[in-house]
Amino acid sequence: MGMFDPLKGFGVTFSMMFKKVATEEYPEIGAPAAPRYHGRHQLNRHPDGLEKCVGCELCAWACPADAIFVEGGDNTEDARYSPGERYGMDYQINYLRCIGCGLCVEACPTRSLTMINFYEIADDDRQRLIYTKEDLLAPLLPGMEQPPHPMRLGNSEQDYYVNGPELARGRGVPTGETVETAHEEVIG
């Protein structure tokens, strides 16, 4: 150890004293997350307000941490929550167990479960870290009301289910054309 080493250390401290401090006011001003960051889960809706979740429980089966609980229920004509026969009656995600791997999103056949870029999930109460369906469900847009019974799909979902995922993205199928007629044109 040299005799001037403490002076070198004080020199670094003295030079940093006059630089502008880069303090983040985090709790008051939240830092924006990256657009593709996968944070909290969200259960999406169709454009007409119906839930996309059909209660198939594939997300719960795909979860390696066993953090998801889904119980499906049957739609009736009086109470319709999704366009199909079933809906997710009880949906819970335990964020004490969730590892954020995204396998549940990949397993969802209706694209109802996604991960948004909200990252403030930490809490000091264990019970509040179990998110229920009401916590996870996407809010209704202004002017959108839950329809009483129609089995409708929005334009993008209708194109997806009628024409298939590749053809619905605009790869060769004009509006109103089905998969069969598109394949006939390609083959024929």
From TrEMBL:
It catalyses: a quinone + NADH + 5 H(+)(in) = a quinol + NAD(+) + 4 H(+)(out). [4Fe-4S] cluster 1 binds at residues 53, 56, 59, 108. Its main location: membrane. Residues 167-188 are annotated as: Disordered. InterPro entries: 4Fe4S_Fe-S-bd (IPR017896), 4Fe4S_Fe_S_CS (IPR017900), NADH_quinone_OxRdtase_chainI (IPR010226). It is an enzyme of class 7 (translocase). The lineage of its organism: Bacteria, Bacillati, Actinomycetota, Actinomycetes, Pseudonocardiales. GO terms for biological process: aerobic respiration. It holds the Pfam family Fer4_7. NCBIfam families: NuoI, PRK05888.1-3. Its cofactor is [4Fe-4S] cluster. Residues 43-73, 89-118 form the 4Fe-4S ferredoxin-type domain. SUPFAM superfamilies: 4Fe-4S ferredoxins. It is a peripheral membrane protein. GO terms for cellular component: plasma membrane. The keyword Iron-sulfur applies. The keyword Metal-binding applies. NDH-1 shuttles electrons from NADH, via FMN and iron-sulfur (Fe-S) centers, to quinones in the respiratory chain. The immediate electron acceptor for the enzyme in this species is believed to be ubiquinone. Couples the redox reaction to proton translocation (for every two electrons transferred, four hydrogen ions are translocated across the cytoplasmic membrane), and thus conserves the redox energy in a proton gradient. Belongs to the complex I 23 kDa subunit family. It is found in: Cell membrane. [4Fe-4S] cluster 2 binds at residues 63, 98, 101, 104. NDH-1 is composed of 14 different subunits. Subunits NuoA, H, J, K, L, M, N constitute the membrane sector of the complex. This is NADH-quinone oxidoreductase subunit I. It comes from the Bacteria. Its EC number is 7.1.1.-. Keywords: 4Fe-4S, Cell membrane, Iron, Iron-sulfur, Membrane, Metal-binding, NAD, Oxidoreductase, Quinone, Repeat, Translocase, Ubiquinone. Binds 2 [4Fe-4S] clusters per subunit.
